[in-house]
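Design a sequence for this backbone.
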């Protein structure tokens, strides 16, 4: 008698589950499967490129430049950004844990005079960036169910942040982003300073073999309007083609690989022993942020 083999998931089994779900009532599950199982690395990279877009708007770059968070405590800023996103999604956007994370984020932002139109634009980058990346470099296209769920999640997150006049569809966010960039993208020395500080963070957090080329690879992945607004040097055409070919090869290999068994979780170098919500935020604000609200232990 032969022993039965343990069931293993096929490459498209998660997609089949996603297609069986409702993008409005099952938003959290779809976003979790898409960002933590199907495209965890791609989602993070797309978000990273998206944040670089913020620096193409001089008013945003000048504020970030003044805070010096990227210069003085860049890896913590990087870790905290990813951990806030995890706090919002790990138990669902309307869970007490997510609401606590968003309240803390709102208290941080309350220290600065940020207009609603900038909040709207930055939120738009957080959905357009990952979707564009996966469209170009993912191992499969996003399903319309996934895109709709991502838009629903993004709008709910934005409303919890108190952002007004938000789109409710991906096309709406894409139009918001493109029209805002058309009007506001422009070079400023602050753009380049914050960009170079961020590229140094990317180098610090990248795997050791990739660190020498992280800066050039990141620039090679930028579109021309973004590269010009950030004031970084154009990369040779052969290098750009090589980077994109490498990502296409990766996608092809992933297409032949089994799906992830466990959800991806960011491993922050800032908090090797784990973190609480009370650890997140600029170091200069931690005491005031924690004065009224205690942190919650994270998984």
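Sequence:
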């Amino acid at each position: 008698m032969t022993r039965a083999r343990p069931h293993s998931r096929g490459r498209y089994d998660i997609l089949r589950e996603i297609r069986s779900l409702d993008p409005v009532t099952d938003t959290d599950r779809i976003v979790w499967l898409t960002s933590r199982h199907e495209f965890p690395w791609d989602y993070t990279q797309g978000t990273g490129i998206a944040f670089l877009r913020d620096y193409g708007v001089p008013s945003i770059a000048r504020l970030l430049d003044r805070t010096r968070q990227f210069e003085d405590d860049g890896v913590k800023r990087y870790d905290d950004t990813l951990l806030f996103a995890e706090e919002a999604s790990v138990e669902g956007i309307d869970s007490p844990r997510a609401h606590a994370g968003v309240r803390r984020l709102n208290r941080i932002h309350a220290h600065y005079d940020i207009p609603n139109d900038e909040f709207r634009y930055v939120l738009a980058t957080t959905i357009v960036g990952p979707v564009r990346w996966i469209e170009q470099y993912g191992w499969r296209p996003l399903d319309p169910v996934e895109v709709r769920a991502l838009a629903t999640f993004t709008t709910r997150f934005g409303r919890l942040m108190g952002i007004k006049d938000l789109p409710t569809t991906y096309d709406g966010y894409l139009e918001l982003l493109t029209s805002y960039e058309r009007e506001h993208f422009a070079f400023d020395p602050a753009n380049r300073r914050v960009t170079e500080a961020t590229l140094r963070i990317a180098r610090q957090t990248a795997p050791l073999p990739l660190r020498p080329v992280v800066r050039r690879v990141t620039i090679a992945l930028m579109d021309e309007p973004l590269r010009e607004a950030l004031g970084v040097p154009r990369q040779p055409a052969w290098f750009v083609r090589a980077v994109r070919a490498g990502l296409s090869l990766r996608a092809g290999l992933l297409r032949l690989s089994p799906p992830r068994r466990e959800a991806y979780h960011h491993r922050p170098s800032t908090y090797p022993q784990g973190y609480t919500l009370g650890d997140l935020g600029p170091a200069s604000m931690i005491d005031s942020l924690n004065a009224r609200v205690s942190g919650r232990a994270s998984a």
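Residues 24-265 form one domain.
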